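Worked example

This section walks through a single chain of length 394. The input is the sequence exactly as stored; nothing has been trimmed or padded.
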Amino acid sequence: MSPSPNIDTSDFYAFEQMLSDSERAMLHSVRDFMTTEVDPIINTHWNAGTFPFEIVPGLRKLGIAGVPYQGHGCAGRSYLLDGMIAMELARTDSSIATFNGVHGGLAMGSIYLCGSDEQRERFLPSMARYEKIGSFGLTEPDVGSGASGGLTTTAERDGDTWTLNGQKKWIGNATFGDLTVIWAKDVADGQVKGFVVENSSPGFTADKQEHKIALRIVQNALITLDNVRVPEHNRLQGANTFKDTAEVLRLTRAGVAWMAVGCARGAYENALRYACAREQFGRPIGGFQLVQDLLVRMLGNITSSLALCARLSQLQDQGHAEDRHSSLAKAFCTVRMRETVGWARELMGGNGILLEHNVGRFVADAEAIYSYEGTREMNTLIVGRSLTGHSAFV
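Given that input, the structure is written out below as tokens.
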């Protein structure tokens, strides 16, 4: 017996109906592209640790870079649509969702939120068309969660030019991208400032980080800045303290929560297909009680996480989203994702670790999503501070 054709077995409460007709059409275009163009090649690239550059023209046609930004060549659509697109990308592959999140969220978001009108117009149109690929350089080899006060990358001004020195680690897209938003501490006032750095600048090197077990398609780099000269007109004019950096992270942390839902959803859908096709003892294992219990647990995690993310996106569209909202979503959804992909692998038994069944890829990639854009512990402290009025940060 097959599922009823009127039941979406992963969007069980029809959250997609919250979108307008035109937004839903755009989401379906993304789904079709990921199904027909990305899904057939993704395991090969994941296994090799290579990026599928052949899909970039298709992404350009979809117009999904910087979806919620107004003007400057961007779509100007809702945060709800932007979140659902992030989920849709991750539903097929978390690395492609991360690539777009770094480019369209972190890099373009930094320029959109912290740049001047001139800088937005200079950089964003070509980035929206994927003609210029962006990266985001905040994390350092010895500075992760403590970035708000511990950056060691420095920026020193000399007239109309800044000199940047230091290193950045885990910087997605930087091995092949065109520009990177670098966050550095101004030696004059000790405040964090943002700079749009051309990757071709003398003294800028990006070495690929090898031997990853997660998000293998994402080309992470260790960036070294050796007396890199950046003109003042490339300093983000609205980025003068780490609070400005945090505005960007608030935006993109919500996107990561959506990616976590997509990762969980992709693992669940692969497990469900497997359960309906795999036969043991003369019948599909989907007819066994314990298998159905696992499927329902997965669906419950996905549905509750989707509800949380949908409400968060509504708050963003209304201008009411705060750090505590994004942090709760990121902490909750990534925990539920980790649990869900584990159950999907459990349902498949030994086959769950084979790349050909896809779930093993989701299990591995979930480990990266669980950690980046703020660990569960750091996001818990942000929410806890909002609840009690007391900061537990060291």
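What to look for: The beta strands are 134-137, 154-158, 161-172, 179-186, 192-198, 204-208, 220-231, 279-280, 283-284.
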